[in-house]
Write a structure and sequence with these properties.
single chain; alpha/beta; Quinone Oxidoreductase, Chain A, domain 1; Rossmann fold; 28% helix
Length: 344
């Protein structure tokens, strides 16, 4: 089969190769990949800047949708021909975290596309227990955003304790930030601020329900939030960039007793951290890592109900052969979400 392989740990170093189709075990399924997204982690691995260790050569890709073409002999709940997505983390299902529904914290977690070969290929395999069926009114294209939407809905709905009427700031207007915005709107946020550095992304934020957008190249987002909240700040700030500066901004624009939710993956340590601001104002810092198994059902229900719209976030669809263009569009922030289509 055709696959896009990261071959060496240096910028670029990815090529399309002919490789063997995955062989499945008794409890696995084989999926013919239709769409696969390029995410920020993939871009960092492409550029060889990711803090996540990865063994090479490796087929990347963990945001995907497709159709089941083969099932292992022990699989009874997934059938050939069904349209599916797959949880990205292959976990032990036995540790204290897995048994309490926090599979994202499993110490043995092996992510598809990082710890094992992923979906930048015509076929990918996954344990049947990881599989979620796509609702009939959700397209394969839309379903390819289930993974980033799971990240967003885990942060907003499962972790942050958001309540109807809360004021919210989202720092970062990439795919995750925009999906956080949509989830916050679904949860009943009363006023939503979105800050970023690129007008094309901020325009999409406005179309998806942001009350105020701030281009930080032109304005200070903290000053803007404080100005429009009468100096109080927001109830919850979501940091979705992985930039240490954004963490400082999130803490500064959160009101006394508010929450800061850290969603971005950070490759560098935070050098400045105002502990006194957090302690004296009783602010809560919440880390948020990927998603749980239950989050995938939540994400698919949000897509199926139409409460969250995937298509405005998807700006480009390219064939696998144009992967370099896709990575470059993301690097220059000219795209929001790039999907590669494996089977036109």
């Amino acid at each position: 089969m055709k696959a896009l392989v990261k071959t060496e740990w240096k910028p670029g170093a990815m090529e399309i190769r002919e490789v063997e189709k995955p062989s499945i075990r008794r409890d696995e399924v084989l999926i013919k990949v239709d769409y696969v997204g390029i995410c920020g982690t993939d871009l960092e691995i492409y550029e060889a800047t990711s803090p996540i260790p990865i063994k090479l050569p490796r087929i990347l890709g963990h945001e995907f949708s497709g159709v089941v073409t083969e099932v292992g002999e022990e699989v009874t709940d997934v059938k050939i021909g069904e349209r599916v997505v797959s949880e990205t983390g292959v976990v032990c299902r036995r540790c204290v975290f897995c048994k309490t529904g926090r599979q994202n914290l499993c110490p043995y977690r092996s992510p598809i596309g990082i710890g094992r070969d992923g979906a930048f290929a015509e076929y990918v395999k996954a344990p049947s227990i990881n599989i979620h069926k796509i609702p009939s009114n959700v397209s394969l294209k839309e379903a390819a955003l289930t993974e980033p939407l799971s990240v967003a809905s885990h942060a907003v709905i499962e972790r942050s304790g958001i309540r109807a009427g809360d004021s919210v700031a989202v720092i970062g207007a990439g795919a995750i930030g925009l999906l956080i915005l949509e989830c916050a709107a679904v949860a009943g946020a009363e006023k939503i601020f979105v800050s970023g550095r690129h007008e094309n992304r901020l325009k999409v934020a406005s179309s998806l329900g942001a009350d105020v957008t701030v281009n930080e190249r032109k304005e200070n987002p903290v000053d803007k939030v404080m100005e429009l909240t009468s100096g109080l700040g927001v109830d919850i700030a979501y940091e979705a960039t992985g930039n240490p500066k954004a963490v400082e901004q999130a803490i500064s624009m959160t009101k006394k007793g508010g929450k800061v939710v850290l969603v971005g993956v950070h490759s560098k340590p935070l050098e400045k951290f105002n502990i006194h601001n957090i302690v004296s104002n009783e602010k809560t810092i919440l880390g948020c890592w990927t998603h749980r198994s239950s989050t995938w059902d939540l994400a698919l229900s949000l897509l199926s109900s139409g409460k969250v719209k995937a298509n405005p976030v998807i700006t480009h669809v390219l064939p696998l052969e144009e992967f370099e263009k896709g990575f470059e569009l993301l690097r220059r922030r000219e795209a929001i979400k790039v999907l590669m289509r494996l089977h036109p």
